[in-house]
Amino acid sequence: MEVLFTFTSTLAAINGEAALRAGGLAVKVMGRPTVLGAGCGLSLRLPAAEAAAARELLAAAGLAPEGLYDRLEEDGTIVYRQRPEVIGPPT
């Protein structure tokens, strides 16, 4: 399984990619799936096992993802399920 981080701006997504790569994570940049609504056109995809480390690296870089989704395949179709973790700017 993989996870998908979405962002409110392209700059945040690009900076997020750089932070995750610098942290040694296997991140892929992909277009934001249209089923997740409008917003920044980029999202970051990585193995679900790296989600916690990714959140820590993003927070350390001062970046707050807009959303975090599980990327699953059901009956041959890719679906996205929002994770219950609180996402957004650090408080």
Overview of the molecule:
By secondary structure, the protein is an alpha+beta fold. The protein contains 2 helices and 5 strands; from the N terminus they run βαββαββ. The chain has helices at residues 10-22, 51-60, and strands spanning 2-6, 28-31, 42-47, 67-74, 77-82. It is globular and about 35 Å long. The termini are far apart. The mean pLDDT is 90.
For the sheet with most strands, the description reads: 5 strands, antiparallel
> Order of strands across the widest beta sheet?
2-3-1-4-5
User: What string, H for helix and E for strand, traces the elements in order?
Assistant: EHEEHEE
Number of helices: 2
Shape call: globular
Average pLDDT for all residues = 90
Looking at how many chains there are and whether they match, the oligomeric state comes to single chain
Give the radius of gyration.
12 Å
Query: Residue ranges: pLDDT <50 for 5 or more in a row?
Result: none
Strand content: 25-35%
Termini separation comes to 29 Å
Query: Can you count the beta strands?
Result: 5
Structural class of the secondary elements? Answer: alpha+beta
Helicity level? 25-40%
